[in-house]
Specification:
This protein has about 500 residues and is α/β, with parallel strands linked by helices. The chain is built from 19 helices and 14 strands. The protein has an 11-stranded mixed β-sheet. It has a 3-stranded antiparallel β-sheet with strand order 12-13-14. Helix 4 (about 85-95) runs parallel beside helix 5. It comes from Gluconacetobacter azotocaptans.
């Protein structure tokens, strides 16, 4: 079935038509410098297809919230919801087939990446029964799939880049059609841009971006400079959903307006005569207003920054020395580990703890340690990650000191931090001969609501030769830990989640 929408007109005459069904299978990349008309193009595409296909818009600047007034899109304020809530919203919008604008205006760069990743992850992980077609538009895609590391944390960058890669590389089978727009191709991750088969290239000035745009369109390098001459609102189109040869297209008019339209020049009103203007601006203040305004005293000279640093270093050294604990006996260290385990267990009792980032849990842990009088530097981050994995597995302090469990932790050491907790959860069940943890339990330990993602983590552990999974004739799953001879009892993987603490 062919469903065509008109995005404008071809230079020289005739409508510029886009095959929407083909777009859903082949994805679209829009590129153009600031002011080239990218947002206008996306708005035209969204308006023309709003009644034909479900839409999800990742909007970092709040440009597209006005679509809600005319087309009924649900606007979600990303600043007001947690990542867990946004992941659930991504799943539910596909279940209920609602068009959504995720407004990330006013959210800092790292939170934008985390919350967009959570929302896209929810859309990606929805059950197969809800894989309806969705047009997923991501404006300023270089923010969410950067080509190089920036000022944000590696954890946020990996999560966002992974979500964008899933959208563009694996989203088609799940009904997700990615439409990404960027100011500069050089700033966009190549593995994300390379998955698009349709292109709309706008005005571009930098040589590296012009050359890359020409390569994507199959043009010769000497033709690349033509991108500098494009007027605002004109794009060179190519792709199976657009046309088989590069064609210049002028984007048509839109019915809704952006809230962040740029300033316009207006003529000055006739100015008063100079003497009247002087009187308006420099008229002495009334006495009562002068009294109300405190006199501004001259600012003191800035202190010597080197002296400040030296004083701070001296005070920090004194404070560290004061907090340095006395030498510990083995009994003291055992008691400290018991207290650490009790604090971690208390933190993990919170239902949302499994879905909070590790650095947030770490800060909570340090605060609780200070309250307990255990100092500011009770445990560094690598030690905390290991202790957290053990706590998520539900191991008490006494068992954790045993030689058997120490062997399990040595096997877990080479695994990635986020996989260590899952392995130790299975190892604990195998050591005790308890039923194999369900998918829901594994998902909670991993920090996700997605059962599919939990199953993929189990497959990864099996690929790493640390566990072996078996399924009996009744569909019950069991897991054996390689090298230790431990094995869980068989259980239904679709059973309800179990508490791990």
């Amino acid at each position: 079935m062919t469903v065509a929408i008109t995005i404008g007109e071809v230079r020289g005459g005739g409508p510029a038509v886009m095959d929407l069904a083909e777009l859903l299978s082949t994805r679209l990349l829009v590129q153009g410098n600031s002011g080239s008309g990218k947002s206008h193009l996306l708005r035209r595409l969204l308006e023309q297809s709003a009644t034909l296909v479900q839409q999800a818009i990742i909007d970092p600047e709040g440009d597209f919230v006005s679509l809600a007034e005319k087309y009924g899109h649900l606007v979600i304020d990303g600043a007001m919801h947690t990542e867990a809530e946004l992941q659930a919203a991504g799943e539910r919008m596909r279940v209920h087939r609602a068009s959504v604008v995720l407004n990330l205006e006013g959210v800092d760069a790292e939170l934008q990446m985390r919350r967009a990743a959570a929302f896209l992850g929810g859309m990606f992980e929805v059950a197969r029964a809800h894989w309806y077609p969705v047009l997923v538009v991501v404006d300023e895609a270089q923010l969410f799939a950067p080509a190089a590391a920036g000022e944000v944390s590696d954890e946020a960058r990996r999560a966002s880049l992974g979500a964008m890669t899933n959208l563009m590389c694996r989203g088609r089978k799940r009904g997700l059609a990615g439409v990404i727009a960027t100011q500069r191709l050089a700033k966009l991750a190549k593995n994300v841009a390379a998955e698009a088969s349709n292109f709309l290239m706008g005005r571009t000035f930098l040589d590296i971006d012009m050359a890359r745009a020409a390569d994507l369109l199959g043009m010769e390098r000497r033709q690349a400079e033509s991108f500098r001459d494009l007027q605002r609102g004109f794009f060179v189109a190519l792709g199976p959903a657009l046309c088989r040869r590069p064609v210049a297209v002028r984007i048509g008019e839109v019915e809704t307006e952006s809230r962040s339209a740029g300033p316009t020049l207006l003529p000055f009103e006739p100015a008063p005569p100079p003497e009247e203007m002087r009187e308006l601006i420099l008229t002495p203040l009334p006495d009562r207003e002068l009294m109300a305004r405190p006199a501004r005293t001259p600012a003191p000279p800035p202190p010597d920054i080197l002296a400040q640093l030296a004083a701070h270093a001296a005070s920090a050294a004194v404070e560290a020395e004061a907090e340095e604990p006395p030498p510990q006996t083995p009994a003291d260290r055992a008691e400290q580990r018991r207290r650490f385990a009790a604090i971690l267990t208390d933190i993990l009792r919170d239902e949302d703890a499994g879905f909070r980032p590790v650095h947030v849990l770490y800060q909570d842990f340090l605060v609780r340690c200070r309250i307990e009088g255990m100092g500011r530097q009770a445990m560094d981050m690598p030690q905390f990650r290991r202790a957290l994995a053990t706590a998520r597995a539900g191991i008490d302090a006494e068992t954790a000191e045993g030689e058997a469990w120490q062997q399990a932790e040595r096997i877990a050491t080479p695994l990635p931090d986020d996989m260590r907790g899952i392995f130790l959860l299975i190892a604990r069940a195998a050591m005790e001969g308890a039923p194999c943890p369900s998918d829901a339990t594994i998902a909670r330990v991993y920090g996700t609501h997605s059962l599919g993602r939990a199953r993929r983590q189990l497959a990864y552990l099996e690929e790493q030769n640390v566990i072996v999974l078996r399924t009996d004739g009744m569909g019950r799953r069991s897991a054996a830990v390689i090298g230790l001879g431990w094995e869980t009892a068989p259980s239904d993987p679709n059973g309800a989640g179990q508490s791990t603490v």
